[in-house]
Amino acid sequence: AQSVTQLDSQVPVFEEAPVELRCNYSSSVSVYLFWYVQYPNQGLQLLLKYLSGSTLVESINGFEAEFNKSQTSFHLRKPSVHISDTAEYFCAVRIAGGTSYGKLTFGQGTILTVHP
Amino acid sequence: NAGVTQTPKFRILKIGQSMTLQCTQDMNHNYMYWYRQDPGMGLKLIYYSVGAGITDKGEVPNGYNVSRSTTEDFPLRLELAAPSQTSVYFCASSDRLSTGELFFGEGSRLTVL
User: Fold this and answer.
1) CA separation (Å) from B47 to A51, A54, A93, B61?
2) Cβ contact (<8 Å) for A42 and B106?
3) Are the Cβ atoms of A104 and B102 closer than 8 angstroms?
4) Rg (Cα) of chain A, in Å, rounded?
């Protein structure tokens, strides 16, 4: 079975500061990794994903995450945050390939609050 | 651009009542899922379906039932509601050919008193 641990439940930062949201996973088989974002009173939206290839993946709004197989981590970073980045962020994992029927295992979530 | 639609958005139930959360998607996705979200716990998979007529249990299925008579619809039934079922419920769908993206509805907030 897979598991995901998000190491920080809440991360407060000031606008334009850098931020890192930490995620570690556990799995005995190859996995795909994801970050989802949930804005207040909305559903989850995919932010970025790692499937294979380059270990550094980027989103369209400036976030990036790096897959580190040796440390089983997939931390999310942004060099300069905006007020609009305030949201809850979820790290998720699924078994690579088609045998898991797309089922995701989620971490506990990290609430990012950006202060002016 | 409807995507995944859930109804109702909010509902209050009394202990022992039953209800059905509706979910429909217009993307012709084969895979559909029900998750529940509790504060500090992330999302837990309740049930999932890989196509019409095929459903299976997830991590936390007790107290719930599902059916999948069409590709579009995946209702979640709560029988004999209990306070432990107070939560936010999310329906999601995925194309079986995709590599992981789930499309989520906006959620249904259920309170059992």
Assistant:
1) 25, 33, 17, 6
2) yes
3) yes
4) 14
Where do we find the tokens 């089983």?
A72
> Is the pLDDT score of A98 beyond 80?
no
In tens, the pLDDT along B73-103 reads 999 999 899 999 999 999 999 986 666 689 9
Q: Which residues of B touch A105 (CB under 8 A)?
A: 45
Work out the number of other CB atoms within 10 angstroms of the CB of residue A78: 21
Nearest by CB to B43, from A9, A90, A94: name it. A90
Task: Quickly list DSSP for A22-89.
Answer: -EEEE-SS-EEEEEEEE-TTS-EEEEEEE-SS-SEEE-TTS-EEEEETTTTEEEEEESS--GGG-EEE
